Amino acid sequence: MFIRDALKNNKVTGVLYKGLKQFRDNKRKRKKYRYHGSFQDRSKGADKLVIILAGYKPFLYDSVFGRIIQFVPKDYDVCVVSSGLYSEKLDCICKGNNWSYLSTKENNVGLVQNVAVSLHKHAKYIFKLDEDIFVTKGFFDTLYQALIRTKKSDYNPGFIAPLININGFTYRVILDEYGLVKEYENRFEKSIIAAGQDRMIQNSSEVAKFMWGDGGVVPHIDELNDHFMKKDKKVIPCPIRFSIGAILFERSMFKKFGGYSVNLTYNSLGKDEEELCSYCLLQSRPAMICCNSVVGHFSFGSQTEEMKDYYNNNPDSFKIGSEICN
């Protein structure tokens, strides 16, 4: 520290220090946006963009993309992004719906999101969805309007998200609304507000099925959404790390955030969530939750295999619309 400060403040070495620092910073910035792959550009230059991270759960495409096709406003730009692969199926979906498609050879979710944002220069409001998020009626406009309201409140939001059925914070909001806390605790465990692999909301397939309506206790996600849409407009801060599978943020926030770091020597899965949540906490830009929209999250990793069977045996709990690509 002492040597660095001496070099920085010395009249002779100070210029060299600043030059080397600028070179290093520029190199890091270029790394955040340099990729190999392809981009099928069908952007309309809209100020609202939907980025969908996809490529690894093709068995969900008919229902996940069927819902997006039905509910995304026609004047939005949509860009499907694949980290580390090219998918002919996704390319077909994008062509059929006049969406952009970005695929990178580098398997880094931070990189592919940085690139997608940079390629849509007119987008001021950016929705980011994972491929296992099931959107519902009114999701996009409800979240956008909630963000605009929140900006006029006492909070400076980092990002805004809907209620999500499988999520360490918002599952409890749903249980409270329907008086199901005791039911949940009798079946599973104490219903504390917490994320992490030690919690059943994140590691138990039986809990995942329960929150998806198995047994008829928790309503279907479209019923949940209809119910919460009719309630008084409400946005609340999230006090814990939030799973960023379905969020809306402003380009201006992302610019200050500086984009995700990119290290191609390790698997970046989950690193984007860690970085964004850390930034929002340290900069007093909280994750805000819109209590008037509900979406479905298919599962966390350890729940996925058993949820596949549940998905195949209960298509009406997930699907909407018709075939997305011949």
Percent helix range = 40-55%
Mean pLDDT: 92
**Tally of extended strands?**
10
The CATH architecture comes to: Alpha-Beta Complex
Low-confidence stretches: 20-27
Number of domains: 1
Name the CATH class.
Alpha Beta
The CATH topology comes to Spore Coat Polysaccharide Biosynthesis Protein SpsA, Chain A
Secondary-structure class: alpha/beta
CATH 4th-level superfamily:
Spore Coat Polysaccharide Biosynthesis Protein SpsA, Chain A
Outline the fold blueprint.
Blueprint: H1 2-9, H2 13-31, E1 37-40, E2 48-53, H3 61-71, E3 77-83, H4 88-97, E4 100-104, H5 109-119, E5 125-130, E6 133-134, H6 139-151, E7 159-164, H7 170-177, H8 181-187, H9 200-203, H10 205-211, H11 221-229, E8 235-237, E9 246-250, H12 251-257, H13 271-282, E10 287-297, H14 304-313
Parallel strand pairs: 2-3, 2-5, 3-4, 7-10
Antiparallel strand pairs: 1-4, 5-9, 6-10, 8-10
Describe the structure in your own words.
There is one protein chain. The chain has 326 residues and is an alpha/beta fold. It has one domain: Spore Coat Polysaccharide Biosynthesis Protein SpsA, Chain A. The chain is built from 14 helices and ten strands. It has helices at residues 2-9, 13-31, 61-71, 88-97, 109-119, 139-151, 170-177, 181-187, 200-203, 205-211, 221-229, 251-257, 271-282, 304-313; strands at residues 37-40, 48-53, 77-83, 100-104, 125-130, 133-134, 159-164, 235-237, 246-250, 287-297. Strand 3, helix 4 and strand 4 form a beta-alpha-beta unit. The termini are far apart. The relative contact order is 0.17. Mean pLDDT is 92; it is low at 20-27.
